[in-house]
Amino acid sequence: MTRVLSVVDERFPIAGTFTISRGSKTEAEVITCEIAESGVIGRGECVPYKRYGETMAGVAEAIEQARHAIEDGASRTDLLTLMSAGAARNAVDCALWDLEAKLSGVPVKDRLGIAAPLALETAYTLSLGEPETMAAQARANAARPLLKVKIGGDNDIARIRAVTEAAPDSRIILDANEGWTDANIAENLAAAAQLGIALIEQPLPAGADQILGRIPHPVPICADESVHIAADLAELKGRYDAVNIKLDKSGGLTAALELRDQARTLGFQVMVGCMVGTSLAMAPAVLLAQGAEFVDLDGPLLLARDRSPGLVYEGSMVSPPLPELWG
């Protein structure tokens, strides 16, 4: 067996500007890992995330540091100890899943026991802005059944009200990106419940969310920044009702499957989410998200240009990946 690893950094423009409580971006910066063996190439994509101290250069270097072991035949299981959870391991892990499928002729869906993966309803994300701006975004997307709304600052109740009034038939997820405080969370939760919000993601900073175990949850609360791998779950019981699983946090599909199954065992609802990346990053997540209560895999819909071939989106429905893309 002779493997050759390559690492490429790529940039894909975002359609407009994508804004959350921590800042704005105009392009998706991604790293693609390719592993060639016996004339076929497996691919995986990751999105370095500054919130976790990741940079494009740092993630590329982490993959390079594992090059020798990967080219010598390291397995996906080996990666769990060879590399830390995070974007770098995600790119390599997903590339190995793709490579295994191509070498064996057995698609990833069959390896996962999914005979016929379904198209899934994905949330569509609205950027953080002033209430009037967010209402305009919501109005333009009011036909979508599920919206994810970025909040996390002063005047959030006005933002929530503006969006719910502009898209009265949509279910709405709020994503505060750690932007609320102990002082305003009870008031914000009460307003969210009154306005019919379906789910609230990570209202408080990771590591400073103890109050969630002591206050009522009139709306289910989902951990995002507070959960990366299965070992994180035990501490979250009683604070959160759901967990948002992202491949870039867990460090690949292999670890994400363990996280999903353990979350189910502990009684958490499951959301499968994403960073802003291309269809190559979303493809394994679509298989992971089969049966999830909430799906947020709209990354390619936010881009001005995606990969070709990409995932097929029809409205808010995303179809499973074709082998030409991944898996």
TrEMBL record:
Q: Which residues form a coiled coil?
A: none
Enzyme Commission designation: 5.1.1.-
Q: What class of enzyme is it?
A: isomerase
- Domain of life of the native organism: Bacteria
Which residues participate directly in catalysis?
A: K150 (proton acceptor), K246 (proton acceptor)
Annotated InterPro entries? DgoD-like (IPR034593), Dipeptide_epimerase (IPR034603), Enolase-like_C_sf (IPR036849), Enolase-like_N (IPR029017), Enolase_C-like (IPR029065), Mandelate_racemase_C (IPR013342), Mandelate_racemase_N_dom (IPR013341)
Keyword DNA-binding among UniProt keywords: no
Which parts of the sequence bind Mg(2+)? D175, E201, D224
SUPFAM superfamilies the record matches: Enolase C-terminal domain-like (SSF51604), Enolase N-terminal domain-like (SSF54826)
Molecular function per GO: metal ion binding; racemase and epimerase activity, acting on amino acids and derivatives
Tell me where in this chain the Mandelate racemase/muconate lactonizing enzyme C-terminal domain is found.
Answer: 131-222
Q: Which family does this protein fall into?
A: Belongs to the mandelate racemase/muconate lactonizing enzyme family.
Question: What is this protein called in UniProt?
Answer: Dipeptide epimerase
- To which species is this protein native? Aminobacter aminovorans
